[in-house]
Amino acid sequence: MAGAAGALHGAGDHAARFESKAATREPTLVKWAILALSLTFFAVFLLMPLVAVFFEAFRKGWETYLAALVEPDAVAAIKLTVIAALISVPLNLVFGVAAAWAITKFEFRGKHFLITFIDLPFSVSPVVAGLIYVLVFGAQGWFGPWLSEHDLKVIFAVPGIVLATVFVTFPFVARELIPLMEAQGRDEEEAAVVLGARGWQTLWYVTLPNVKWGLLYGVILCNARAMGEFGAVSVVSGHIRGLTNTMPLHVEILYNEYQFAAAFAVASVLALLALVTLVIKAWVERQVGKTGAEE
User: Fold this and answer.
1) What is the pLDDT of residues 61-89, one digit of tens each?
2) Which residue in 210, 268, 270, 260 sits closest to 85, CA to CA?
3) What is the structure's pLDDT at 293?
4) Cα four-point dihedral sign 275, 280, 286, 288
5) Backbone phi, then psi, for 171, in 5-degree steps?
6) Residue 5: what pLDDT?
7) For the residues 190-206, what does the mean pLDDT come to?
8) Dihedral over alpha carbons 250, 252, 258, 259 (to 10 degrees)
9) Which of 201, 177, 162, 164 lies closest to 96, judged by CA?
10) pTM of the model
11) What is the Cβ-side half-sphere exposure of residue 159, based on CA atoms within 13 angstroms?
């Protein structure tokens, strides 16, 4: 009986493997058609625009390209973009770690609402987000008169740009950490507490080392979105040249003024940042794969 059961079990496994292979077996023509379709979409919608940006940027030579980048308004736009990223990314890093730690390691009322609110920037248009800040901090907004009395500017100034950037980027770190922390469970943290570790010690020596690659991945995505954000920043910036224009806004102004070479030159910097982000992202994914294989 045992032998018959083993034989039936083996036959069942063999049949399951055969069905799995059969379910994924496609004619060669279908495989090549799917591959050709994928490569065509990649070439038309991703590769060709990227090549066009760099081609147009360098079409009039290095002198024109460098002149567009060292122009005062372009330098100011680059500086403002970097400042917004340097402020918003660390803030989102702190929020993302705190939110992910609270959601995955503790039980409390309103937990599901917090998870929902984290996803809010994904469902709200960036333009609407910028408009919200205008309605709150603008001259006719809720706090507008008080800000005017104290000579404080939020809208059409750097603080408004930073706020808009923080809003559109804050889900990225948390959303990378929450699934990772949930998969790891609470066993190691509970063991650390039993051994006498305090909360910060548990976070620093147990939790963060286990999620370091996911944390870095979230920071990379957050930084990429911060530097490339257009909609929300466009609403709150006022488009003041040399003061409140980030790189995406500066590109739009140059293009509308028919300064195509300069527009593509600044756009190429953003494209280069995107490529660097992809390289770092691929490296992080490779490190994650190595870590998973070792475990």
Assistant:
1) 899 999 999 999 999 999 999 999 999 99
2) 270
3) 60
4) negative
5) -75, -20
6) 44
7) 77
8) 30
9) 177
10) 0.80
11) 9
Contact 266, 74 (CB under 8 A): yes
What DSSP state is assigned to residue 205?
I
Question: What pLDDT, in 10s, does the model give residues 21-34?
Answer: 445 567 788 888 88
Q: Which one has a higher pLDDT value, 113 or 15?
A: 113
Q: In a 3-state reduction of DSSP, which class is residue 88?
A: helix
Q: Tell me the C-alpha to C-alpha distance, in Å, between residue 272 and each of 53, 97, 227.
A: 10, 29, 12
Query: Which letter, b or e, does each residue of 202-225 get, where b requires 16 or more Cβ atoms within 10 Å of its Cβ?
Result: bbeebbeeebebbbbbbbbbbbbb
Helix ranges (DSSP H) in 106-186: 111-118, 120-123, 126-137, 144-149, 158-169, 171-184
Buried/exposed code over 4-42 (b: 16+ C-beta within 10 A; e: otherwise): eeeeeeeeeeeeeeeeeeeeeeeeeeeeeeeeeeeeeee
Of 14-18, 95-99, 105-109, highest mean pLDDT: 95-99
Q: In this structure, are residues 85 and 226 in contact, taking their beta carbons and an 8 Å threshold?
A: yes
Spell out the residues 6+ positions from residue 74 whose beta carbon is closer than 8 angstroms to its own: 68, 250, 262, 265, 266
| Cα–Cα distance, 22 to 16 (Å, whole number) | 10
What is the rounded distance in angstroms from the CA atom of residue 182 to the CA atom of residue 129? 30
CB 286 within 8 A of CB 78: no
* pLDDT computed for residue 115 by the predictor: 87
For residues 172-188, b (16+ Cβ closer than 10 Å) or e, as one string? bbbbbbbebbeeeeeee
Type of residue at 137: F
Of the candidates 175, 154, 156, 169, the residue with the CA atom closest to the CA atom of residue 103: 175
The span from the CA of 245 to the CA of 109, in Å, is 42
Asked if residue 172 lies in contact with residue 92, where contact means CB atoms within 8 angstroms, the answer is: yes
Q: Tally the residues of the chain.
A: 295
